[in-house]
Amino acid sequence: MTSPSGERSLVLIKPDAVRRGLVGEIIGRFERKGLAVDAMVLRSMDAALADQHYTEHVDKAFYPPLKEFMTSGPLVAMVVSGDQVIEVIRAMIGSTDGRKAAAGTIRGDFSLSNRENLVHASDSPDSAKREIQLWFPELA
Asked: Residues 14, 53, 67, 120: which is the catalytic one?
């Protein structure tokens, strides 16, 4: 799945980032990198969508607290596109655990948590396609 700007990825700016007022900072980093925001919406994730989005994790011990966190408040869902966008975004956001993420990455600069780590980004073209279909069915 590609757009005129190349590959596409789903990005979720998680409830902790929305609560902390980091939405503009995070979007600005993507835009300054040269990535395009193709679609964006402020919304909540309900329990059913959480189960669909994290389907591979539903039976894992860490999932119930993750689900509780992700459904705890509004988030920003975006479709972002650009050359090798999945790889570029994942490098920009840093490793999952904000305490271990490199300085200069979004998580490295703003997160001290493994769960409340500000951003979700698709990890492969297949997951991007599936996630975009969940969040933006009109674009699929």
From this structure: 120
